[in-house]
Design goal:
Number of strands: 35
CATH class of the largest domain: Alpha Beta
Radius of gyration: 31 Å
CATH topology of the largest domain: Spore Coat Polysaccharide Biosynthesis Protein SpsA, Chain A
Structural class: alpha/beta
Helix content: 10-25%
Strand content: 25-35%
Number of helices: 8
Bound molecules: uridine-diphosphate-N-acetylglucosamine, calcium ion
Distance between the termini: 84 Å
Shape: elongated
Number of domains: 2
């Protein structure tokens, strides 16, 4: 269900598209359904339907195992009405798990247990005890047997005291669900079609109703406001940080880590505070990440050190644009690695150095204030402070090739396409627009001259 408005978000963006850990709320729910091997995922949209449908279609991979379809609920007349819209696309032999697009942190394990309770022939409700159950549907029981869910606004004073509430999640055989949905009415305090009314129909039909009670509130917590969104973001991040630490990763402060994608770490990885990982990132054995780094779509090999305030922004994971940092490389502080940066073993990239679509072979160094774009850099090259590759002529990009053991002085401009031959040296301040031969000293700047006894102009 993803048709609700989300008024309290006070945002133009439909509620279910707000991001948690870099993914839309509703995407978390869909991804969890995928883990359950659902054969079909049906999203009920309403408010902002075109935007919600487009976003989900774009982010659900082509190779996904389930059929994705959308049904619209316009206007929104309640949760029962919402699920009624899906009836034409639900197959009679199926088991339906009803989820909310704004409840992102339900674990797949919990849903698997709920499905096991349902067993294809029961109505299974996910429930939880809340010290303050205000606003939730109460689970009304006689003895142990569930009799009904009564909504807050329809409850008697005695029912309001019940602390066991309905989470909004159920598993139910499709065939029975359809017959009960057909019997819903809106004769209640809110004039809505309540999905929760199907419980009393099941009881009347003698169909078994079971409750699967959990204790972890985050798993059923919904997002209605920016405050709740931030709370769940922290709950999510805490979960990720604990998993990493259980694998042996050392985090200076688990409360100051943000993983917005998939982070995998080998043994003895250390991550300092305020780092953000996006997309797919892998860190090899013994990698150290300094404070305040932002790292996206990169694989960083064993022993590399990423010093503080480094920004790594690889392109699509697994593509040639993903960033690679070789074993033992030293990057930063304040370095910037852009799509297609491929750094070999023991490469050094220092402060205020930007690398884009360039390959640096083993031991190459660019330690200060430099730009390498569309360059192929050989082993042991030393690339001086302030030097740049002029890779763009205003229309096309061209490559710069710097062969092994070259020294580029400070403040050089290498006008691509250009090749600097192996072992060559380029004098500081040179603008090199023609190929430079191997082993030569190449100087391309005006010759120094001095005017003896130069008199500065005097004020009249
Ligand atoms: C519902 C349950 C309540 C339960 C609570 C848990 C009903 C009648 N009540 O409450 O027992 O304790 O969830 O959070 O089901 N939605 C639609 N279309 C609609 C109405 C809602 O798609 O017409 C979606 C909302 O966007 C949301 C979800 O359904 O994702 C739940 O709706 P919400 O209004 O939050 O739940 P309540 O009705 O208050
Ligand atoms: Ca409601």
């Amino acid at each position: 269900m993803a048709a609700g408005k989300g008024t309290r978000m006070k945002s133009k963006l439909p509620k279910v598209l707000h991001l948690l850990a870099g993914r839309a709320l509703v995407q978390h729910v869909i991804d969890t359904a995928a883990v359950l091997s659902a054969r079909q995922v049906t999203v009920i949209t309403g408010h902002g339907a075109p935007e919600v449908e487009a976003a989900i279609t774009a982010s659900t991979q082509a190779g996904s195992q389930f059929d994705l379809n959308f049904v619209r609920q316009e206007p929104q007349l309640g949760t029962g009405h919402a699920v009624q819209q899906a009836v034409p696309v639900l197959r009679d032999d199926g088991l339906v798990v009803v989820l909310s697009g704004d409840v992102p942190l339900t674990q797949a394990d919990t849903l698997t247990q709920l499905i096991t309770s349902c067993a294809g022939d029961k109505l299974a409700l996910l429930t939880i005890d809340f010290a303050n159950p205000t606003g939730y549907g109460r689970i009304v029981r006689t003895g142990d047997a569930v009799q009904a869910i009564v909504e807050q606004k329809d409850a008697t004073p005695a029912q309001l005291k019940i602390t066991e509430v309905y989470s909004g999640i159920m598993a139910v055989p499709a065939k029975q669900l359809k017959t009960w949905l057909a019997r819903l009415d809106n004769k209640n305090a809110q004039g809505e079609y309540y999905l929760t009314d199907i419980v009393k129909f099941a009881v009347a039909d003698g169909f078994p109703v079971v409750a699967h009670k959990i204790i972890d509130a985050a798993q059923v917590a919904g997002v209605n406001s920016p405050v709740q969104l931030a709370d769940l973001e922290r709950a999510y991040q805490k979960r990720v940080a604990l998993q990493l630490m259980e694998q042996g990763v050392r985090l200076t402060d688990p409360a100051r880590l943000d993983v917005r994608g998939k982070l995998s770490c080998a043994q003895d990885v250390f991550i300092d505070v305020n780092c953000v990982f996006e997309g797919v990132v892998s860190l090899g054995e013994g990698v150290k990440i300094g404070p305040n780094c932002v790292i996206k779509n990169a694989s960083i090999a064993a022993g590399a050190v990423i010093h503080p305030f480094t920004h790594i922004e690889g392109g699509e994971p697994g593509s040639k644009n993903a960033v690679e940092v070789g074993p033992g490389a030293l990057i930063g502080p304040f370095a910037r690695l852009r799509p297609g940066a491929k750094l070999g073993a023991e490469v050094h990239i220092g402060n205020f150095v930007e690398v884009k679509n360039s390959t640096l072979a083993k031991g190459a160094k660019a330690n200060h204030l430099a730009y390498l774009g569309d360059a192929t850099v050989g082993e042991r090259v030393n690339y001086g402070a302030g030097s740049i590759t002029a890779n763009y002529d205003g229309a096309n990009k061209h490559r710069t090739i710097i062969e092994a053991d070259v020294h580029i002085g400070s403040n050089c401009v290498l006008v691509a396409p250009v090749t600097i031959g192996a072992g060559g040296t380029v004098g500081g301040g040179s603008t090199v627009s023609k190929d430079a031969p191997p082993l030569a000293l190449t100087v391309a700047r005006a010759r120094q001259m001095s005017v003896a006894n130069w008199k500065r102009p005097a004020k009249k």
